[in-house]
Write a structure and sequence with these properties.
The protein has 146 residues and is mainly beta.
Length: 146
Amino acid sequence: MSNQLIDIVEAACKKPKEEISEFEIGDTVDVHYRILEGEKERVQIFNGVVIARSGSGTREMFTVRRIVGGEGIERKFALHSPKIAKVVTVRSAVVHRAKLYFLRDRVGKAVRLKERAMRRKAEDTVATVKKARRGSKGKPKKTAAT
């Protein structure tokens, strides 16, 4: 009975899937975060690398790390929080771990991650023309029949 109640409450609090962009560990993201200043509300962008995801359901959190002035700054965000306007994936990286805590010890160029080739949609692909083979200079090949 209590599990059903929890599921009902979580379903009501959860954001629709259309609002949440898909991102993975190692992706560089822009987190658009709503901030209240007095009675005004503005959106601040926190740019960094996703180093961890934890939890599930409405309790899912993700940690974003960025370097400002030589200092590493990490911030945890609740994925389904109403304060998050949107999460935009800037670039993806190839990683083989679930948590990238090893980046905390690295400095300078060592922090960079290898970029993953973005998957193209079928609409975006363009038919490519075959290039002439090396040495043929674009001339048709002569055969014995000609």
